[in-house]
Amino acid sequence: MPPIQTIAFDADDTLWVNETIFTQTQEHFTDIIRPYVRAEELGSQLDQTQIRNLSLFGYGIKGFMLSMIETGLELSDYRLPGTHIQQLLELGKEMLQHPVQLLPHVEETIRQLEGEYPLMIITKGDLFDQESKIARSGLADYFSSIEIVSEKNQETYRRLLRKHSLSAEAFLMVGNSLKSDVLPVCQLGGHAVHIPFHTTWVHEQLTPCQLEGYGYQELENMSQLPAYLQQL
Amino acid sequence: MPPIQTIAFDADDTLWVNETIFTQTQEHFTDIIRPYVRAEELGSQLDQTQIRNLSLFGYGIKGFMLSMIETGLELSDYRLPGTHIQQLLELGKEMLQHPVQLLPHVEETIRQLEGEYPLMIITKGDLFDQESKIARSGLADYFSSIEIVSEKNQETYRRLLRKHSLSAEAFLMVGNSLKSDVLPVCQLGGHAVHIPFHTTWVHEQLTPCQLEGYGYQELENMSQLPAYLQQL
């Protein structure tokens, strides 16, 4: 096996906390709309709206804000008062300004690996919001290139490998999403390390059979990455 | 003067119609909120909200949708009914799906220049929406590289020139915005062609003194670009 020449990291829920902010906001959302919605409808409707709107909005907080408003209106039969819609806007603006909270061992590991490998970030989502988080993370200088993409599938990774003149066999992707970070990279013959985050958005979940036959390494947290690289 | 080696094009209102779609939507927005708003307040409030929100939302339609909702709520003292908020969401979704209408002479000019120069797109805005428009424009294959950025200032162009190993003296930017396409490129010592679109968003307008002393060429439409390049 050729040695790893480049390591790419996912950002949200790999370098820093993200899904938790969505989950907490979703709880506030439920509290705000609760008085106007039948109890049995207070469920997964927001997830469904988001997934329905993905092809129009893409990933990111602004699309999430619009889906919150749409869901609140639909579930309340359009009775949700303007003051409550304004509260949903404020919730979203708080998300956009939420402090970037690095995950455990991220900074020390990135700092350690930076001298040994070119490091990349490959993250999907809203360009403006991702750039803002990367800047606020304090980590930007450790990465030789940063790619913000609208989707992370085989075609995306194929394009990025070509663009950076990398061979899949010498490329390692580290991320929390089996669907976005592990499976497409393995399918191209690359290496992947899966570091699960404690919650995964329903849209990012895979059934076990979709991963069958692909070899990838699961690590508990980022501190285990250097040792894993050494024994490759 | 060294010959031009790379030509980059802005996209919105340079390759295809954009501002018109915002202007038309703004008229529909005014019609929707009119019954709930004092007449004297039906003015430039939406522009002001958008500019106030730029640092949080960046450019693009999703941010515009959120700013429409916020403005409608504020101007109506939060009395705008849910059904009307839903209409604003629908307006925005129509914008996101609006057919891409190429500007006159764009396709023939791009096709003609493609054999002679590497062509780039440098456009700012929402990653997902811009990618979707580039794909739908049918022009993607003419461009050797496409850069979607969150802001177009000197630092952006400096970074892109470095990334693509281009010298400013051999780089020409073509666009409709003096602020985003012309001024920062001229400041770096590059070349710029300004092709005005009939409307320019207030945030993109410059005062004449900001451009004083910089040489750039103004053309009426894209068909004049090849002749201009020949006489350089």
From TrEMBL, chains A, B:
Looking up Gene3D superfamilies in the UniProt record yields: HAD superfamily/HAD-like, Putative phosphatase, domain 2
Q: Which residues form the signal peptide?
A: none
What Pfam families would the database entry show? Hydrolase (PF00702)
Supply the InterPro entries for this chain.
Answer: HAD-like_sf, HAD_sf, PGP-like_dom2, S-2-haloacid_dehalogenase
Keyword tags: Hydrolase
Query: Superkingdom of the source?
Result: Bacteria
GO molecular function ontology, one term from the record: hydrolase activity
**PANTHER family, per this entry?**
HAD FAMILY HYDROLASE (PTHR43316:SF8), HYDROLASE, HALOACID DELAHOGENASE-RELATED (PTHR43316)
Q: Please state what the protein is called.
A: DUMP phosphatase
Recorded source organism is Cesiribacter andamanensis AMV16
